[in-house]
From TrEMBL, chain A:
Pfam families xref list: ABC_tran, oligo_HPY
Record SUPFAM superfamilies: P-loop containing nucleoside triphosphate hydrolases
Descriptive protein name: ABC transporter ATP-binding protein
One GO molecular-function entry: ATP binding
InterPro entries per UniProt: AAA+_ATPase, ABC_Ni/Peptide_Import, ABC_transporter-like_ATP-bd, ABC_transporter-like_CS, Oligopep_ABC_C, P-loop_NTPase
Superkingdom as given in the UniProt entry: Bacteria
From TrEMBL, chain B:
Name of the protein described by the UniProt record: ABC transporter permease
Domain of life of the source: Bacteria
Cell compartment(s), UniProt: Cell membrane
Listed PANTHER family: ABC TRANSPORTER PERMEASE PROTEIN (PTHR43386:SF6), OLIGOPEPTIDE TRANSPORT SYSTEM PERMEASE PROTEIN APPC (PTHR43386)
UniProt family annotation: Belongs to the binding-protein-dependent transport system permease family.
GO cellular component: plasma membrane
All copies of domain ABC transmembrane type-1, residue ranges: 72-260
Principal location class: membrane
Record GO biological process: transmembrane transport
Lipid bilayer topology: Multi-pass membrane protein
Gene3D superfamilies, sorted: MetI-like
Length: 333, 275
C-alpha cells in the first residue's frame, strides 16, 4: 500500500471452506490484504488457488449451504461485511462494490435487454424512476463506447459480440459508481486485441469514477498492464505480495519465479527453440491438512524444513512480503 | 415472415389453430347458429340427420346439432380454465420450490403425494361432496395437473439459477424475489405454453369422461361427455347421436395437441430447426 492512502477494503486472515460430501475443502486459508482507494490490486495464481473464492467471499456470493467464510474479517466502509445481514449486504452489492465476471457470453440474461439489466441496479440502489434509470443506462453505454448507444440500449445480449458484452458488463458494474470493482478474470474469455481494449477501458473509467479495482487473473501480462500491487496466491494462501515493478524485477517466491519462467517470450539473443518451462507436479489437495509449505512438493529449492514447517510471511524490502524459508537465498542469487 | 411461409414451415400449428378457431367461434356464436339444445320434442325422437335437424335428434327428441355446438362451450371452457389454473398455481409453487431450498423439500414431497391422486376419482369425490358445477369440475381436474407444472417449472429454475447471469444479478444487489420474477420467470414461459396445451387437451378428455360417468357438470347442461353417455343405449338405432359429439371431441383434442406439438418444435431452442 502506498503511504498515506487509506485502505477502503481490508481482508484479515480470511478462511473460506467448502463443505462437501468428501470432506472440508479449505479454498481460502488465511489470506490478508488491503486495497487502497483508487488502487488496482492484482490477485494471480493458477486455477483452484482460491482467487475467485476470495472475491466471492468478499461479495458474500458463495454457494449457500456449500461454501462459508469461517474465519477472519472483510472490513469495508468501517464495517465487517462477513457480519452484515443479507439485506445490508444487498445494499452494498452493485452499489459500493460491483463485480465483473469472466464469461461475457453467459453473464447477461438472454431474455432481458441490456438497458433493463443496467437500469436494474440503478433503480435498486439510487431509487431512480424507470425513465431516469433508462437514461442512465444509455449514458453508461456511451461511456463504455458502445456506438449508437441510444438505439443499442434496447437490444438483447445476443445482438452483441463478446467484447461488446463485456463492455455492457462493465457499464452494469459501474452504473452506481462503486468504490470497489472486483473483476474476476474479466478478459480471459476474450481474444487478445479485445482484451487490451477492455483493460484500457477499465483503467480509464476507474480513473473517472474513482473506483479501486481488485483484478483477479491468471495472466501476469494483465497484471503488468493494469495493477500497482500484486498478490500471488497458491493453494488458498498468499505466498507473495509486492508492487508490480518489484515483483517482476525481483520475484522471491519459487512459485512466482516458476510462473514468470513459464511465460512465453522472445529475448533478443535467446535460442529460439527453447522449450516453454513449466512447474512440475500438481496443486496439492486442499482437503487434506497441509503441513509445511504447500508448494514444497513442486519446489526445486525445497529443504526438509519446508515440508515440516509452514513458512510465515516475512518482509523482504519495502512492501515486499513473501512466505518462503529460502527467500533470502533467492533474493541474493 | 409472411403468414404463408409460417404455415408452410409449421403446418401442424396452422391446421390445429384453424380447427380450434372454428370450434371456438361456433361455441361463442352458439345461440345464433343453433336452436335450443334443451327443447324436447317427443314426436321427433331418434330422427336421422335431415334438413330440420342437421345431425338428427336424440332419444328425447333434442337437436343433436344444437347440443353439440353448446357442448363445445363446456369443453373449451374447462380446457382453458384448467390449463390457466394449473399453470398459474404451478408456476408460483414451482418458482418458489426451485429457488428457495427450504421451500423445495417440503413442497415437492407434498406434490409427489398429489400426483398419486387420480383426477377422475378426485372429481367424483368432490362432486359427491358438493353440488355438481363447472367450477368443481375445473378444480378437480386442475389439482392433479398442478404437480406436473410444478415439476416442469422447478426443473427450469434449477437450471437457470446456476447461470452466471443470475450470479451477476445477485452481485448487482437484486433481492431474491426480484431475481425469480424478473430473471428466471421469463425462461419458463416457452415450456409452459407447450405444457398448457397438453393440459388443456387432457382436461377436455377428463371432463368428457366425468360427464360420461355422470360426475361432471350438472346433467341439464349439454356436454359432449353426457351426450355420449345418454346416447350409448341407442347406438345401434341412432348412431348419429354418438358420432357428432365423439367426432368433435376427437377433433378438438387432436387440434390442441397439434398446436402443442407445433409450439414445442417452434419454441424449443434445443431442437435443430430446419431453415
Amino acid at each position: 500500500m502506498r503511504a498515506g492512502a487509506e485502505p477502503i477494503l481490508s481482508v484479515e486472515d480470511l478462511h473460506t471452506h467448502f463443505f462437501t460430501q468428501d470432506g472440508v475443502t479449505r479454498a481460502v486459508d488465511g489470506v490478508s490484504f488491503t486495497v487502497a482507494a483508487g488502487e488496482t490490486l492484482g490477485i494471480v495464481g493458477e486455477s483452484g488457488c482460491g482467487k475467485s473464492v476470495t472475491a466471492l467471499s468478499i461479495m458474500r456470493l458463495l454457494p449457500p449451504g456449500l461454501g462459508r467464510s469461517v474465519g477472519g474479517s472483510v472490513r469495508f466502509g468501517g464495517r465487517d461485511l462477513l457480519t452484515l445481514d443479507e439485506a445490508e449486504m444487498r445494499r452494498i452489492r452493485g452499489d459500493r462494490i460491483a463485480m465483473v465476471f469472466q464469461e461475457p457470453m453467459t453473464s447477461l440474461n438472454p431474455v432481458l435487454t441490456v438497458g433493463e439489466q443496467i437500469a436494474e441496479a440503478v433503480m435498486i440502489h439510487q431509487g431512480k424512476s424507470r425513465h431516469d434509470a433508462w437514461a442512465r443506462a444509455e449514458e453508461m453505454l456511451t461511456l463504455v463506447r458502445i456506438p449508437d448507444a441510444a438505439r443499442r440500449v434496447g437490444d438483447y445480449p445476443h445482438q452483441f459480440s463478446g467484447g461488446m458484452r463485456q463492455r455492457v458488463m462493465i457499464a452494469m458494474a459501474l452504473s452506481c459508481h462503486p468504490q470497489l470493482l472486483i473483476a474476476d478474470e474479466p478478459t480471459t474469455a476474450l481474444d487478445v486485441t479485445i482484451q487490451a481494449q477492455i483493460l484500457k477501458l477499465m483503467l480509464e473509467l476507474k480513473g473517472r469514477i474513482g473506483a479501486a479495482i481488485l483484478m483477479i487473473t491468471h495472466d501476469l501480462g494483465v497484471v503488468a498492464e493494469t495493477c500497482q500491487r500484486v498478490i500471488v496466491m497458491y493453494a488458498g494462501r498468499k505466498v507473495e505480495e509486492a508492487s508490480v515493478l518489484d515483483l517482476f524485477d525481483r520475484p522471491l517466491h519459487p512459485y512466482t519465479r516458476g510462473l514468470m519462467a513459464s511465460i512465453p517470450r522472445r529475448r533478443p539473443g535467446a535460442p529460439r527453440t527453447r522449450r516453454l518451462q513449466e512447474i512440475p507436479g500438481m496443486v496439492p489437495s486442499l482437503r487434506e491438512p497441509l503441513s509445511g509449505c504447500p508448494f514444497a512438493p513442486r519446489c526445486p529449492l525445497a529443504t526438509a524444513r519446508c515440508t515440516a514447517e509452514a513458512p510465515p510471511l516475512e518482509q523482504h524490502g519495502a512492501g515486499h512480503v513473501v512466505a518462503c524459508w529460502e527467500a533470502g537465498r533467492i533474493g541474493v542469487s | 415472415m409472411t403468414l404463408r411461409r409460417f404455415g408452410r414451415r409449421n403446418p401442424t400449428i396452422v391446421i390445429g389453430a384453424l380447427l380450434l378457431l372454428l370450434v371456438t367461434a361456433a361455441a361463442i356464436a352458439a345461440p345464433l347458429i343453433a336452436g335450443d339444445p334443451l327443447l324436447i320434442t317427443p314426436v321427433d325422437r331418434l330422427l336421422p340427420p335431415s334438413e330440420k335437424y342437421w345431425l338428427g335428434t336424440d332419444h328425447l327428441g333434442r337437436d343433436v346439432y344444437a347440443r353439440a355446438v353448446f357442448g363445445a362451450r363446456i369443453s373449451l371452457l374447462v380446457g382453458v380454465a384448467v390449463a390457466a389454473v394449473s399453470v398459474v398455481v404451478g408456476l408460483g409453487i414451482g418458482l418458489a420450490a426451485g429457488y428457495w431450498r427450504q421451500v423445495d423439500a417440503v413442497v415437492m414431497r407434498f406434490m409427489d403425494g398429489m400426483m398419486a391422486i387420480p383426477a377422475i376419482l378426485l372429481a367424483i369425490a368432490l362432486v359427491s361432496l358438493n353440488r355438481a358445477s363447472v367450477f368443481i369440475v375445473v378444480v378437480a381436474i386442475s389439482l392433479p395437473e398442478i404437480p406436473r407444472v410444478v415439476r416442469l417449472v422447478r426443473s427450469v429454475v434449477l437450471t437457470v439459477r446456476e447461470m452466471p447471469y443470475i450470479e451477476a444479478a445477485v452481485s448487482g444487489g437484486s433481492r431474491g424475489r426480484k431475481i425469480v420474477i424478473r430473471h428466471i420467470l421469463p425462461s419458463t414461459v416457452a415450456p409452459l405454453i407447450v405444457q398448457a396445451t397438453y393440459i388443456a387437451a387432457s382436461a377436455i378428455l377428463i371432463e368428457a369422461g366425468l360427464s360420461f360417468l355422470g360426475a361432471g357438470v350438472p346433467p341439464e347442461i349439454p356436454t359432449w361427455g353426457n351426450m355420449i353417455a345418454s346416447s350409448r343405449l341407442f347406438v345401434a338405432r341412432a348412431p348419429w347421436t354418438i358420432f357428432a359429439p365423439g367426432t368433435l371431441l376427437a377433433l378438438v383434442v387432436l387440434a390442441v395437441n397439434l398446436v402443442g406439438d407445433g409450439l414445442r418444435d417452434l419454441l424449443d431452442v434445443r431442437l435443430a430447426r430446419r431453415m
